Model the fold of this input.
Amino acid sequence: MHLPDGLIPLWQSLIYWILTIVTLAIYLFKLSKSAEKEKIIINTAIIAAATIVVSSLSIPSPFGVPIHLFVIPLVVILLGPLSGVTVAFLCFLVQFLFLGMGGITSLGANTVTMGIVMSFSTYLFYKFTADLDDKLSIFSGTFMGIIMATITQVIILLAAGVATLEMLMSTLIPFYLFVAVIEGIANLFIIMSIYKIKPELQKMDKI
Done:
């Protein structure tokens, strides 16, 4: 889902960069006010490092295109939506600098898609279903976060005039529906296991 440089007009890229910078500034402000600031920073650094590694791995898929897990929904459920945006931004920056994935001008757009939209969609659906069932909330949060991010990328590509709706509906949507199901199931087992090992994470401040 990483968009490369040169695909989006610069004036549109600037808008996405502004949204990204504003969101990161809000995160830093809320972090400075948290009583658990040091603990949040340590946990975020550890999870960010794991996210960079895991999301860089290629997993074969029946579509003939390798899957790169997002991991951002997992970050959001453990640490909160603004933390998800921050981890996504750091992840995309490192992947561009060292792996050639994405780009600098498109970094804002990638962060809006897989950071802002994915994080807040995940958190919204996770919290909305939390009172019904823990497992359902983890799966639905992950699934809908990825789907909403995919829809956002479709809108970004259409606004940039580089793809048609028919092409995107026949390629992006089916592929990321599959990814959303796989990652939703994976997050279900991973997060439930983490909560059993470190139950204090459930009570920690989420930013």
Remarks:
- Helices lie at 10-33, 37-56, 72-79, 81-99, 107-129, 134-160, 165-197.
